[in-house]
């Protein structure tokens, strides 16, 4: 992952607790390169899948403000928008898996509050983030059954080295302003440490859709408040109590006016995470943690017509997750073998004023894994996890990883794992109409009776034959395989390549199944029997000297539904033609572009430069994403060359940072999307953004960089 590689040249203080070493996304990290976590025994050294770290300093040098801005510049990571959402709802794809299959964690615990599968990354401020761990592929052995596509684990400040405080202000385009403050200290003769931070973020929103009337937005004005506190206290020599809490609130109002029936969409979101953990070290080689975690997401959405201020729809949504977990790790005396294991469960409660989307769900799990190093050049990771659900039963998911270094300049790696994901309540029972867009989504388990009610109300014009495929949804399963190598052809240059293949059975897909009388879409969910994502990731990083670090990454991705390909070959009536010009023609497998919203090609280039004597740091980054299918306009069941595509595009960003007064004062200038590229099919991508920031650090002693 090129954005993370800069940290290797920026942080060489191996003795300081907050040093983070980063590796490219195609690498499996080892214990020597993984930072200790205060309240979790799981580190990247126990992960068999490709992984990478973005550290705090790299995030700062990028000038990013929200999590989505950081992730969009990473190799093999695509940011996607939810066009029907009433807020700036942006999710993430990895290895071709959509947002539903990428688990977002804070300090190893799941976040709540997904909108149509997307967990909106723009909700998350980077103020509290110490580093970001990214794992690609099925990671269920340690991180849970829903991590079929991968994991983004947000690590908050864990290690306090000295009392200090920081305040910062950033302001710029689109009435954007970000005010934040942080403080950290030790107490009780260093038995305890405390870290606290807060940030206030506001933006005036923007509009990238030329068909909207003046004053409308595709990304709404909003303001957000985020608060974070974290502390630990040594109760006895081998026992430590860890407590953390995070609260975030966001209020947004979106106005959409096509000149017919203008409307407003107001959304108030509240996000709460609380964790308490007791750590015990039985011996120098055995560590146990008992942990309780609560996450709560609440939203209140009000859709109204502007003329007459008539309320069209109001939805109050609550999601609560209570999670308890016990973990243990043990290092054998020989240091060649280590173990990690755990067990726990969670209770999930969902309540909504919208019909059918309330209920309870129980999940329970147990996992065990061994890391074995029989030879210095050979490492093996093997593990398994059992995930159970009160509605869908359980499944055992194994994982295996091997690292082999035949010579000092070459390392070979391979890994395999499986994933398991039962349907969510919204996919099963939700009946929801977006009044701003007009479409309706009907849960699979209530489809038959709900369609009859909609027909009786005169709201359905036509139900397509594909609706016959709707039945009780089955749990999804996946198999993930990765294989690659890293090589150092020169002392300061590293090249990495990773091949991946993911096979998904019973993939739950959002499917248009008809048309409403108002001309809008009617959706439900069906299982796709056999889907796949496969491709290649490659990266290069070099440090030619003179303070420069240059990195580049590329992803080649193929995705598809094997059942659709078979139907095209067999001349199935639904898939037998494409809308070519001037006349339709028979379809062929080569017409099938793959799953929507996936680009065949993605690439990025990043250049970092540091001039330490002057306290000067510069970065210039560019990301390119090839075209991707957006909408099946002729309803023939697949994206073909005559459907709607988002064109390929390049985003160019730059940042300049200057440190003064013994590094206490930092000035920063950030310029995002220099070419001012926008597309109305990408509603969350703003035009050119110019921001200036200032940061002051209060500390007793000089910090050496």
UniProtKB/TrEMBL annotation:
Q: Which residues form the TonB-dependent receptor-like beta-barrel domain?
A: 204-674
Q: Where in or outside the cell is it found?
A: Cell outer membrane
The record, for Gene3D superfamilies, names: TonB-dependent receptor, beta-barrel domain, TonB-dependent receptor, plug domain
Matches recorded under Pfam families: Plug, TonB_dep_Rec_b-barrel
Which residues does the UniProt record annotate as the domain TonB-dependent receptor plug? 45-151
Q: Name one GO biological process term.
A: siderophore transmembrane transport
According to the UniProt entry, its GO molecular function terms are:
siderophore uptake transmembrane transporter activity
Family of this protein? Belongs to the TonB-dependent receptor family.
Quote the protein name from its UniProt record.
Ligand-gated channel
């Amino acid at each position: 992952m090129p954005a993370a590689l800069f940290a290797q040249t920026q942080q060489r203080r191996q003795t300081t607790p907050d040093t983070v070493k980063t590796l490219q996304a195609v690498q499996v990290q080892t214990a020597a390169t993984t930072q200790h976590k205060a309240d979790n025994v799981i580190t990247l050294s126990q992960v068999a899948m490709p992984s990478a770290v973005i550290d705090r300093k790299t995030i700062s040098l990028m000038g990013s403000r929200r999590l989505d801005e950081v992730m969009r510049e990473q190799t093999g990571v695509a940011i996607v928008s939810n066009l029907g959402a009433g807020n700036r709802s942006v999710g993430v794809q990895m290895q071709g898996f959509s947002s539903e299959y990428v688990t977002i964690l804070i300090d190893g615990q799941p976040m709540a509050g997904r909108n149509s599968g997307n967990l909106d990354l723009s909700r998350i401020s980077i103020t509290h983030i110490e580093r970001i761990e990214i794992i690609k592929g099925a990671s269920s052995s340690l991180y849970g059954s829903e991590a079929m596509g991968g994991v983004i684990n947000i690590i908050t400040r864990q290690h306090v080295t000295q009392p200090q405080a920081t305040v910062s202000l950033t302001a710029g385009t689109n009435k954007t302003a970000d005010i934040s403050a942080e403080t950290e200290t030790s107490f009780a003769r260093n038995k305890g440490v405390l870290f606290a931070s807060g940030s206030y973020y506001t933006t005036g929103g923007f509009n990238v859709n030329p068909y909207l009337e003046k004053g409308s937005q595709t990304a709404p004005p909003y303001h957000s408040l985020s608060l974070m506190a974290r502390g630990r206290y040594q109760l006895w020599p081998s026992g430590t109590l860890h407590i953390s809490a995070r609260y975030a609130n966001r209020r947004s109002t979106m106005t959409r006016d096509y000149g017919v029936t203008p409307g407003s969409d107001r959304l108030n979101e509240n996000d709460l995470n609380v964790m308490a953990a007791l750590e015990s070290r039985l011996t120098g080689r055995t560590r146990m943690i008992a942990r309780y975690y609560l996450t709560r997401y609440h939203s209140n959405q009000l859709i109204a017509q502007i003329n007459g201020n008539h309320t069209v729809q109001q939805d109050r949504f609550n999601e609560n997750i209570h999670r308890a977990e016990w973990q243990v790790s043990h290092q054998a005396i020989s240091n060649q073998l280590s173990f990690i294991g755990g067990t726990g469960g969670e209770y999930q409660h969902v309540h909504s004023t919208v019909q059918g989307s309330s209920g309870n769900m129980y999940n329970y799990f147990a996992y065990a894994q061994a890391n074995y190093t029989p030879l210095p050049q050979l490492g093996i990771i093997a593990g398994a996890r059992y995930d159970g659900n009160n509605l869908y039963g359980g499944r055992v998911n194994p994982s295996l990883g091997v690292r082999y270094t035949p010579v000092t300049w070459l390392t070979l790696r391979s890994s395999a794992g499986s994933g398991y994901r039962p349907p969510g309540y919204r996919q099963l029972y939700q009946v929801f109409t977006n009044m701003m867009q007009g479409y309706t989504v009907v849960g699979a388990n209530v489809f038959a009776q709900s369609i009859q009610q909609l027909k009786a109300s005169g709201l359905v014009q036509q139900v397509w034959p594909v609706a016959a495929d709707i039945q009780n949804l089955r749990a999804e399963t996946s198999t993930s395989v990765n294989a690659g190598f890293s090589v150092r052809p020169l002392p300061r240059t590293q090249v990495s390549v990773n091949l991946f293949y993911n096979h998904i059975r019973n993939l739950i897909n959002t499917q248009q199944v008809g048309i409403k009388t108002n001309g809008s879409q009617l959706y439900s969910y069906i299982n796709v029997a056999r889907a796949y994502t496969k491709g290649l990731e490659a990266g290069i990083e070099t440090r030619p000297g003179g303070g420069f670090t240059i990195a580049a990454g590329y992803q080649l991705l193929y995705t598809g539904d094997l059942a659709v390909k078979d139907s095209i070959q067999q001349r199935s009536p639904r898939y037998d033609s494409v809308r070519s010009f001037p006349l339709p023609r028979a379809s062929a497998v080569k017409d099938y572009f793959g799953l929507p919203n996936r680009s065949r090609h993605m690439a990025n280039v990043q250049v970092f430069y540091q001039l330490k004597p002057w306290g000067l740091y510069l970065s210039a980054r560019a990301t390119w994403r090839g075209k991707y299918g957006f909408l099946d306009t002729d309803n023939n069941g697949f994206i073909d060359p005559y459907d709607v595509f988002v064109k390929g595009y390049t985003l160019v960003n730059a940042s300049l940072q200057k440190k003064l007064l013994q590094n206490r004062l930092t000035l920063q200038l950030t310029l995002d999307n220099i070419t001012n590229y926008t597309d109305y099919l990408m509603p969350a991508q703003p035009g050119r953004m110019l921001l200036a920031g200032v940061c002051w650090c209060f500390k007793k002693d000089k910090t050496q960089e």
